[in-house]
Amino acid sequence: MISWIDIVCSALGLATVFLAGRNSKYNFWVGYLYTAALFVMFYGKCLYASLLLQPVSLAINILGHYRWTHPKEDERSAADSGALKVSMLSWTERGLAVLAVLVVAALWGWLLDRLFPADPHPYLDSCVTVLILMAQLLSALKKWDCWVAWLFVNIAQIILHISIGNIFMPIVCGLYLLNGLWSLSTWVRLYKNNS
């Protein structure tokens, strides 16, 4: 059955990632609405790891909004001095990010399994949630690597949403995946142009 919240989340999510992929600071305004809609949807689907971390997601969105519009002197885009330029993680930072996702997801999944036995997939739910938070954090810092993380998020979300019977979200996640591939190459060009 298709619900109104599935449609709202789909529209807001697509708008947010579309704007982010095009390097638009307006993605954050849509992101605030998206976070609120996701909170409602996750509550209705009993996906408690995702539900409980929406306030963290909101905080990351606020941080990203500030960072993208208030860069330090050496972080300014060559195309717009009032904008944060795209940068990349070092290989060491990438390894630490992957390790952090795996450890936090395993611990969160274990805790979720004990606290909320109604969650149909606590470890997959936790992994998706932690990956989303890492991708959001990297996006807030305008790291090119965020799009690699989003690709993994989108694949995992397709699996999760199909398993719980969501109709629109797997389609939306497929569109996110296409946007992520396009944005990955777009942000490489921005990185090379110091933008």
Structural description of this entry:
With 195 residues, the protein is mainly alpha-helical. The chain has one domain (4-80, 89-192). The chain contains 8 helices and no strands. Helix 2 runs antiparallel to helix 4, helix 4 (54-69) runs parallel beside helix 6 and helix 7 (146-164) packs antiparallel against helix 8. The chain is globular.
Observed structural traits:
75% helix, 195 residues, globular, mainly alpha, 8 helices
Mean pLDDT: 90
Structural class given helices, strands, pairing? mainly alpha
* Count of discrete alpha- or pi-helical segments spanning 4 or more residues: 8
Task: Please give the radius of gyration in angstroms.
Answer: 16 Å
Biggest beta sheet attributes: none
Q: What would you say about this model in short?
A:
The protein is an all-alpha fold and 195 residues long.
Blueprint of the fold:
Layout: H1 4-21, H2 27-45, H3 48-52, H4 54-69, H5 91-115, H6 122-140, H7 146-164, H8 168-192
Helix pairs in contact: 1-2, 1-8, 2-4, 4-6, 5-6, 6-7, 7-8
